[in-house]
Amino acid sequence: MDRSLKITIAVIVGVILFAGxxxxxxxxxxxxxxxxxxxxxxxxxxLPDIIKVHLTMRSNTTxxxxxxxxxxxxxxxxxxxxxxxxxxxxxxxxxxxxxxxxENYPDSQxxxxxxxxxxxxxxxxxSEIEKIGRALSVGVENGATSIQVSYELxxxxxNEYKAESIEKAxxxxxNKAESLAEGxxxxxxxxxxxxxxxxxxxxxxxxxxxxxxxxAAEDIAVAxxxxxxxxxxxxxITSTVNAVFELR
Length: 248
Prior knowledge:
Elements: H1 3-25, E1 35-46, E2 50-61, H2 67-79, E3 88-100, E4 111-125, H3 131-141, E5 144-152, H4 155-183, E6 188-200, E7 204-210, H5 216-227, E8 235-247
Antiparallel strand pairs: 1-8, 2-4, 2-5, 3-4, 5-7, 6-8
Helix pairs in contact: 3-5
């Protein structure tokens, strides 16, 4: 037989065999196996490692101040009570001039004044819980009209708890799938798909009191007494995982 003809025949046979292999191994030609969908859930207790104290500030002064000067002065007052400067954040600062008219005006002269409003956030580790009372005291001395305390997770802790809860939810999904397969007298096959569609964590408010009304002194005294008793409590974190498995 001519050598070129032998080569041609060999190539044709190789192509046929290769096509046959593709035909056999192509998933589209395999029997479709049944699948099951399961939802894995997990709930864990997380201890917040961050405390935030929100103070609404409002005061009047006859002294004109720039925003930078006000922030510097107020921050230094918190630092003098044991806070770090980077633990204090002042937002929504407004300094507005106005004219003050006394009740017996015009017998008494009016005066030029400045109304200062801002929101202050003191953020510190939950291990330094005593700073809540200090923040309230400094805030009240400088015109605080309300306090709100919240417990939160730092980003590192949130990621740590998130990984743990998703891992537990994934194991729960597999356990449910195995039980379902056994109940159907089947064996659990390979994992087809998986998704984590929910991680639920909401910072928990711990304390809230307004003392801008007519009983400000009494409200402040109550607030000081109550914040001294605050304890950081655990919060629930939940995760959900959806998984699809083959049945054999």
